[in-house]
Design brief:
The chain is of the alpha+beta class. The protein is built from 10 helices and 14 strands. The chain has 2 domains: 132 residues, 2-Layer Sandwich (60s Ribosomal Protein L30, Chain: A), CATH 3.30.1330.10; 157 residues, Alpha-Beta Complex (Phosphoribosyl-aminoimidazole Synthetase, Chain A, domain 2). It catalyses: 2-formamido-N(1)-(5-O-phospho-beta-D-ribosyl)acetamidine + ATP = 5-amino-1-(5-phospho-beta-D-ribosyl)imidazole + ADP + phosphate + H(+).
């Protein structure tokens, strides 16, 4: 790699500042309902849980982020709805909940023919994959606030309270199984866009490693929805789950204070290698920003691992240790 190193922070997204903002936003959110509907988890896990008798109702909210700007560049909006659903559903799955219902929020600068229909195609497909209903939503025209459009959503799921997985069962020696991502998914696109903007390539150019597809189309591959996780939970003992999204492997701090030793990680797809080379991005920065080919992890007892890998096509990527997050020679912090 040559030239000035690109980082997520230099693209305008500082994950440490984001953490400070979240702490400031939530520090006064101290009131908690009691009885029916009382919260069962603190703010900060993948999903929020509420007491509904035998069940816990799980809620998530998320959006597509600046990936929508690449959709605009390509004039292709029929897959970003899948991303919107996936980012929410995968967070539900990471706490053991089954998705049930979804509402979307589409904020527009202005309306144009055909655009909303394409967005709807992706939302419908994501809901079908997730086996849930879209039960409503909201569209807002905000020309003084929005330049282009923004797409987000909220998802509700359910899980029996005794089946909730927050990570407290994780123990040293457990096996980490990685499930492949479909590509970049829907995080880190501020850095992606900075890299492409400063490179000799445009989104309409064909990938140098795959001349059958353009860079833009490669970057718009929708986020994988990991519904197979629910089948695993029905058949095998699972100690922890994690959806690998923005801030990469740092997200693992959400589920346990124990450590992760990724001694045999999934080989990152070519799109990550291309971006890393074009942006002169360090290995550490890549693993702190992107999923790097591993979109979800399942943590299980060693004796269960072969069966879970057989069910999911996942790979044994490491084990649980006393402390730290390590990937071969990298220390993620």
């Amino acid at each position: 790699m040559t030239g000035k190193e690109s980082t997520y922070a230099t693209s305008g997204v500082d994950i440490h500042q984001e953490e400070d903002t979240i702490k400031s936003l939530t520090k006064t959110m101290t009131y908690k309902r009691e009885g029916f509907g009382a919260p069962l988890t603190d703010i900060g896990h993948y999903a929020g849980l509420m007491d509904f008798g035998e069940f816990a109702i799980a809620m998530t909210t998320d959006g597509v982020g600046s990936k929508v700007l690449i959709a605009n560049e390509m004039g292709k909006w029929d897959t970003i709805g899948i991303d919107c659903v996936a980012m929410n559903v995968n967070d539900l799955l990471a706490i053991g909940a089954e998705p049930i219902g979804f509402v979307d929020y589409l904020a527009l600068e202005k309306h144009k023919p055909g655009f909303a229909a394409e967005v709807g195609i992706g939302l419908a497909k994501g809901a079908e994959i997730s086996k849930m209903s879209i039960v409503g939503g909201e569209t807002a025209t905000l020309p003084d606030i929005i330049k282009g459009f923004d797409l987000a959503g909220t998802c509700i799921g359910a899980v029996k309270k005794e089946d909730v997985l927050t990570g407290e069962k994780i123990k040293v020696g457990d096996v980490i199984i990685g499930l492949k991502s479909s590509g970049i998914h829907s995080n880190g696109y501020s850095l992606v866009r900075k890299i492409i903007k400063e490179s000799p390539y445009d989104y309409q150019d064909y990938c140098p490693y795959n001349p059958k597809t353009t860079i833009g189309d490669e970057l718009l591959v929708p986020t994988k929805i990991y519904m197979e996780v629910l089948d695993v939970l029905k058949k095998h003992e699972v100690h922890g789950l994690a959806h690998i999204t923005g801030s990469g492997l740092l997200k693992l701090r959400r589920i346990t204070n124990l450590g992760f030793d990724f001694d045999d990680p999934i080989e990152p797809p070519e799109i990550f290698k291309f971006l890393q080379e074009q942006g002169n991005v360090s290995d550490l920065e890549m693993y702190k920003t992107f999923n790097m080919g591993m979109g979800f992890i399942i943590i299980v007892p060693e004796e269960v691992a072969p069966y879970v890998m057989g069910m999911t096509g996942g790979k044994r990527v490491g084990k649980i240790v006393e402390s730290g997050i390590k990937l071969k020679n990298l220390v993620i912090e």
